Amino acid sequence: MKVLANDGISKSGILALEKGGFEVITTKVAQEQVANYINENNIDVILVRSATKVRKDIIDACPGIKIIGRGGVGMDNIDVDYAKSKGIHVINTPASSSESVAELVFGHLFSGVRFLHDSNRNMPLEGDSNFEGLKKAYANGTELRGKTLGIVGIGRIGQATAKMALGLGMKVIAADSFIPQVDVKVEFFDGQSITTTIVSQSLESLFKEADFITLHVPAQDGYIIGEKELAIMKDGVGIVNCARGGVIDEVALVKALDSGKVAFAGLDVFESEPKPEMAILMHSKISLTPHIGAATGEAQDRIGTELASQIITLLS
């Protein structure tokens, strides 16, 4: 059987699939050619990440497809229910990238509270001519320890983020419509651990109470954070989105950054991805990454082997 990993797959995933008797093709096929390629090459399984979309047109055009796999969590680029109605298995890897995304959240948080994103832009330009001026500009940093982190969505990635926050000595609060409470276990290198219970509260109370807010939710019909929500937040709040573009009103966010209501933002995802708005890209108070939350070697290895395991189980 043949597997087309159109957005790539780790070497460990390829080896696991080949060991299971599958032929793995990693040719990158343009979106408009995917259906033809699948049919011409008798592909049984198509694996994607966030780039390739598997919509109704491809599903209808490719009756030979047995499995659609998403390397990662969100499946908004796949018509999941329609595929399942056609008898196609749809799989993903919800647990594989949690730690990688959580670490990126803290990359943005540390960058924001110590102005690293802006300092890294300006030091090469002015470091030799305006050292004292830059030192003064970036002198009002903030510690994360002792502050309150509000986590919107306390699923796997939210919990991984909570563990890191607890390790830093932060207070953690959460809002989640589907998870009323969760036990979070923080494990240490020597086998010891501590467990704490996080009880979900209302979004409104989280927005009012949190010093920093991080979003861990699937794609939404509307904004979770817009003008109204920004207005009730603490002055000088920091906001991070490593979840999905379109859950924050970016126009309202820029306005709040300009006014000082929001001290900084960290964005890995964007409303108009893959062409983020220039007002976002050029803003001195926004730490930016190009949708790389799960893009670590460790996460990709876990994703590849987990996909391989599911495929082998389903088709052997």
From TrEMBL:
GO terms for molecular function: NAD binding; phosphoglycerate dehydrogenase activity. SUPFAM superfamilies: Formate/glycerate dehydrogenase catalytic domain-like (SSF52283), NAD(P)-binding Rossmann-fold domains (SSF51735). Residues 9-315 form the D-isomer specific 2-hydroxyacid dehydrogenase catalytic domain. The keyword NAD applies. Residues 107-293 form the D-isomer specific 2-hydroxyacid dehydrogenase NAD-binding domain. Transmembrane segments: none annotated. Keywords: NAD, Oxidoreductase. Its EC number is 1.1.1.95. It is an enzyme of class 1 (oxidoreductase). InterPro entries: D-2-hydroxyacid_DH (IPR050857), D-isomer_2_OHA_DH_cat_dom (IPR006139), D-isomer_DH_NAD-bd (IPR006140), NAD(P)-bd_dom_sf (IPR036291). The keyword Metal-binding does not apply. Belongs to the D-isomer specific 2-hydroxyacid dehydrogenase family. This is D-3-phosphoglycerate dehydrogenase. It comes from Flavobacterium anhuiense.
